[in-house]
Amino acid sequence: MGPLIHGCIGGLLLIIYISFRIHSCCSTIQEENEVMVVKSLENQKQMGKSHDIGFLAEAKSKYMHLSDLYEIDNQNASNCGEIIYSKLESNDIVDVSYCTWQEDGDRQPLKGEKVIYTCIPVIDLDRTMDNTLNTAYNAYLSRFCESEANRFVKLRYKPPQNFVYRAIAGNSFAFKYFTTIPYRIFYEILFFFGFNGISDFFWSYKAKRYIFYSQKKIGHEASSYRARYGERDLNPIINHEGGEISENYNSSKDENSMKMSLLNPYNENY
């Protein structure tokens, strides 16, 4: 009876473990157009180092053809999006207006038969935005905040339509079938028993990982940057199949990747 009881207990623990993980397996890692808190480039990179992105996270990414990923990458770079003030789990927002913007992130052609792609937006607001930020912040407080305890407002980035944070692309058996919900649940079982290494090997075999930090410089003056509000910045577009970057592309570097107004004590960058 001893082995039978131990087997039943082990099976029950496995069922409980899988039950808790099914929701994770069935969800996506980050949806298109999901609003995110504005963070600096340094903070985004630190978060990337502290969070180990493994198979289960990558397998929840969108699976597409390489040609579609090339188009998605250029769309991510050439469109800006919106800046808003809001609180977590609240539909109350105040838009932050701006005049011009440009893409300033490092661009590189996506090469390889299998590509695991990540795009992380980084919003760089220059000093011309200070007055606009404070006006929008105070407008939010006056409209939606009734007390001091209710004033934890965050500056957030609302990406443009069809912005994609994560994607995988290529003609790959692993990419096609390992991303299905049944396999992701099966992977949990492999992981539970410590046999997931074989699956990880085939998933990563010949795959190239790219992380694009999309640095969107934003200003309130008409002459600050290349594209006006609502327009695309065509400079960073890449011919991925030819491995070429736009001839006019010139990425100016700025160590201080986000210059926020110091007059806003509630806009914590975390």
Automatic annotation (TrEMBL):
<keyword id="KW-0812">Transmembrane</keyword>
<keyword id="KW-1133">Transmembrane helix</keyword>
<feature type="transmembrane region" description="Helical">
    <location>
        <begin position="185"/>
        <end position="205"/>
    </location>
</feature>
<keyword id="KW-0732">Signal</keyword>
<protein>
    <submittedName>
        <fullName>Uncharacterized protein</fullName>
    </submittedName>
</protein>
<feature type="signal peptide">
    <location>
        <begin position="1"/>
        <end position="27"/>
    </location>
</feature>
<keyword id="KW-0472">Membrane</keyword>
